[in-house]
Structures are given as structure tokens and as C-alpha cells.
Amino acid sequence: MIPQTTPILEKIIPEAEDFLPLNGTDYLELYVGNAKQAAHFYKTAFGFQSLAYAGLATGLKDRESYVVQQGKIRLILTSPLRGGTEIGKHIDLHGDGVKAVALWVDDAEKSFQETVKRGATPYLEPTIERDAHGETKRSGIVAYGDTVHTFVERKNYHGTFLPGFVEWKSTFNPAPTGLKYVDHMVCNVGWGEMNKWVEFYAKIMGFAQLVSFDDKDISTDYTALMSKVMSNGNGRIKFPVNEPAEGKKKSQIEEYLDFYGGPGIQHIAVATDNIIETVTDLQNRGVEFLTVPGSYYEDLLSRVGQIDEDLKPLQELGILVDRDDEGYLLQIFTKPVEPRPTLFFEIIQRKGAKSFGKGNFKALFEAIEREQALRGTL
Ligand code: FE2
Fold it and tell me: What is the whole-number distance in angstroms between the Cα of residue 86 and the centre of ligand 1?
């Protein structure tokens, strides 16, 4: 029998039938109150590197963007330059958060046509942008809440990032922390809306479901949620979709929805090849993580079996371990990276496991509930 945690695709999508082939995550654009300081934070605390800039100095009148990169992960941090802008309204409503999840494609026109044909709401008509380094084509569709998916075609582009951006050369270049690529991105949607968005990814984007939890799987005394994981055909893009479920007290998903003002990205999971080194480094740089009680480690090995790592550093750092029938994974979650209890990061190292740490959800939720209690929002 296959354990329930095994992430088997419900249907395998043959490559030839994949109407939306995706090469990977291209970038995440965050709308933030102060892009200049946010870029400094992601460099200093997380070890991102300066990559590109667009703003007043490049002729933009309404916004300024700083792009930072580590491994294959690129973040655009964007702030408005004056009042009354759409970006400003987004920040007022949501706080700092992810506006665009950009997906790297070979054909932005076709990606747009295929998804719109299946019912997607257009966000950006296919648009060619050019500079001395070539051209890109971008298009976009609306996803949950104010979040959008952008399709980026860059095969004819050889510049630093995108046309309109210039290389951002900085004299301040803190060392990277070993973050490699985006493993998955989780969205929180409203009460009873999980299946609607699961269907959106299935029908409009051709994704398939990996594994589902229900509220009996993921509940503590207080909080509960339901979650389904959607994956594209080649497995490079994975979007778990959460909705709140009834519990004794307020679900952490409901807390997110209250503070974000609707659905949005809850966490970005980034992969490392050495989580002990990465998390040691991140903690030394001031990144704050959720902690679990020491008791979590007492029976850890009986739960997950033999692992390569010593228990001591895992416990000291608060790293969690979970196993499925293909291997195990190590993971840890930051506290929210802005004043509102909304967006946070997950650091993950996979050693065979393709699941998402279901076995840790209870310990994790209890850690979040302790934070909620401190915030008075439980
Ligand atoms: Fe995750």
C-alpha cells in the first residue's frame, strides 16, 4: 500500500499534451513599502545579491524596483514613487506581499492564449519589450485575490534581467547563504474556495493534484486547514492551496486572510543543499524562525527512521524532519518577514522525499499558535 503522504500525480500529463509547458519560476515580484530597504534586508539577512534596478534613474516616473538574486531565485522589490498608484493601493490593502508569480516559458503568446481560452482573466496582453540586449515577451493572467501569474519568454534576451532594467552594481555584497531555487509557493484562499482554485490550476493551467490533506489530518486543538497541492506537468512548479477550516479558535489561514485583506501567497519555500549550514548562517544574520519544543526531537528518529544528520544541530536550530516512502526532508519556517502576520519563507532540503512535511504540520501549527497567542489573534 502506498502511504498517504506519497505525492503521486492523480493523472500523469504527457509532455505533448501539456498546453502550458513551464521551465521554472522566473521571478517573484513583491510590492513593498520601501523597496530600497527591503532589498538591503534580503541581501543582508538572506544573502541575495544585487542584480538589477529600474526607477527614476532609468526614466520611470511611478515606481522603483530593485532585483536581487540567489541561485535561481529572483525577487523584484517594487515601491511606488508617489501617492495614488495601484502599487500603493496594493500595499495599503495587503501590506508587503507577493504581487506576481512569474513563470518562465518558451512562448508567452501561446501561454496567454491557451489559459485565456480556458477561462483565465487577462492581466497583461502579450507585450514585447526591447533594449540593446534583445527582447522579451511577457503576458499575464489574474490568479487568486490581487495576485497574478506572469509568463516570461526570454529566449531572445541576453541582458542582466529584463528590458528596462539596468545592472545594479553595489559595493555591498554579503555572501550567499546557499539558497538554490524555489521549491514551492503556497497560497491561502478564502473559506470554501480551495476547490475553486484547485480547478483553476487543473483546467486553466493544466496542473494535476499531488496529494490532499483534510482538516482531520491538519488540525490541532485550535487551528485547522485544508490543503491540496497542484503541480505542473514536469513538476517544476508546485502550488499548495490552503483554505481555513473550522477549529476551536481562529485558523492561522483565517488570520492571514484578515491581515492580508484576502487571498495571497502565504509562504515561499526555497531549497538548499545543506540546511544546517544555511540556517546557521541565516540565524547569525538575524532571520527569525519558528521554534518547536525540545520534545519534538525526543521521538524524532522513531518517527522518521535513520537520517544522515546529527540530531544535535537540528535541535539547536529548530529544523524539522519528515519522511515519505521516497525519502525524507528537512525544513524550517521563518516568522513573517513584515509587520503583518502574512508572508513568510520556508527553507527546505529534500533527501528523496517529494512531499511537503505533513508529519510536521501539527508541531508547526502549535508553534504558530504560540505566536498567534502572543499577537492576541488566536
Ligand atoms: Fe511549504
Answer: 29
Distance 159 CA to ligand 1 centre (A): 32
Q: How far apart are CA 122 and CA 110, in angstroms?
A: 13
pTM for the whole structure: 0.93
Q: How far is the CA of 31 from the centre of ligand 1 (A)?
A: 21
- The CA 134 to ligand 1 mean position distance, Å, reads 36
Instruction: Say if residue 236 is exposed, middle or buried (CB neighbours under 10 Å; 0-12, 13-18, 19+).
Output: middle
Read off the pLDDT band of 374 (50, 70, 90). Answer: confident
Phi-psi region of 137 (alpha: psi -120 to 50; beta: other; left: phi over 0): beta
CA of 353 to the centre of ligand 1 (A): 13
Taken in order 209, 258, 34, 79, is the CA torsion positive or negative? positive
CA distance 357 to 303: 13
Residues 130-186: tens digit of each pLDDT = 999 999 999 999 999 999 999 999 999 999 999 999 999 999 999 999 999 999 999
Cα of 333 from ligand 1 centre, angstroms: 8
CA 233–ligand 1 middle distance (angstroms): 19
Ion ligand 1: residues, CB within 5 A, are 269, 346
370 CA to middle of ligand 1, Å? 19
107 phi and psi angles, rounded to 5 deg: -145, 95
* Structural domains of the chain, with CATH: 22-167 (3.10.180.10), 179-375 (3.10.180.10)
What's the Cα-to-Cα distance from 61 to each of 40, 73, 78, 159, rounded to whole Å?
Answer: 22, 27, 13, 22
